[in-house]
Amino acid sequence: xxxxxxxxxxxxCPECASKNIYRDVExxxxxxxxxxLVIEDRMIDFSQEWREFDDDGGxxxxxxxxxxxxxxxxxxxxxxxxxxADFYKLGSDRDRDKFFRLRxxxxxxxxxxxxxxxxxxxxxxxxxxxxxxxxxxxxxAARVYRLAVQKGLVRGRSMESVVAGALYAAxxxxxxxxxxxxxxxxxxxxxxxxxxxxxxxxxxLDISIKPSNPADYIPRFASxxxxxxxxxxxxxxxxxxxxxxxxxxGRGPTGIAAAALYVASLLRGEKxxxxxxxxxxxxxxxxxxxxxxxxxxxxxxxxxVEKSKEGKGSKKKK
DNA sequence: AAGACGAAAGTGGTTGA
DNA sequence: TCAACAACTTTCGTCTT
Length: 318
Description:
Blueprint: E1 6-8, E2 21-24, E3 29-32, E4 38-41, H1 84-87, H2 93-130, H3 135-150, H4 159-173, H5 180-187, H6 191-204, H7 218-224, H8 229-244, H9 253-267, H10 274-281, H11 285-298, H12 302-313
Antiparallel strand pairs: 1-2, 2-3, 3-4
Helix pairs in contact: 2-3, 2-4, 3-4, 4-5, 4-6, 5-6, 8-9, 9-10, 9-11, 10-11
The structure holds a DNA duplex.
């Protein structure tokens, strides 16, 4: 595949200790080419530094020495309208009145935002750890949430739903998508609501997210079903063939992933029922059946499936 | 009895006038 | 803003193992 603008990095992969680390400038990601680990990324670039080290000595109460992160409610960036020293520079009473009014409002607003962020980020951490999401996703979600608050997008929506929406978006961006169902279970928000806020927030913040790839779901579903790695790669193989003949467009990615896994499990004699697959994928058996029908028809896998049924017929487990 | 299959009706979201 | 539309779900009856 064409990989433009790759730059070799001097870093070492924390996962496999490989030095084969490249930075994709266009996508803003640093990737290990050996194990595929995304080491660090910064998907949204609003050209503002997020790893903020504050050198303000007076702030040492907040945290000792550590870099402020997005998941802390205040990065030390709170606004302040003037100080009392400025006050004495002002001439008229009118100016002084105005000065105090502005300052009062600014304090009110920013403390409200800070309070909100503090609570929201706690919730975000809770949900994120429930879903065992990587730190990078959590940071991304926090960044999205912060922007949403600053733009006043939380108004009229529950804080929790915006948190869930931000997390969902962050997962998608990092290509480790969770289903809306999983997000719903973790956050206690209805998946309809999460979907709504997700769309709203991404639209308002101009966050573009490419349609999720069914293959991204395979590893998770496969391990939930305790399928062998070979079956998993078989499923990916099937997905690739399906994509090449445009079987995947327009369909829900989870349904396709589920069907591919189901077929792969049949082919490899590691059978799972439609119901089992449907449950982990969060779709119904009917959807799997429909996708499955298309798959064996279009990919001409019918005979192969029949054969493997006979072949494994005598082999029983447990 | 459980799983697979298919038909029919319902739901929520997208699209285009 | 409304209606048509596609994908997906729910429900239920029938067939197969």
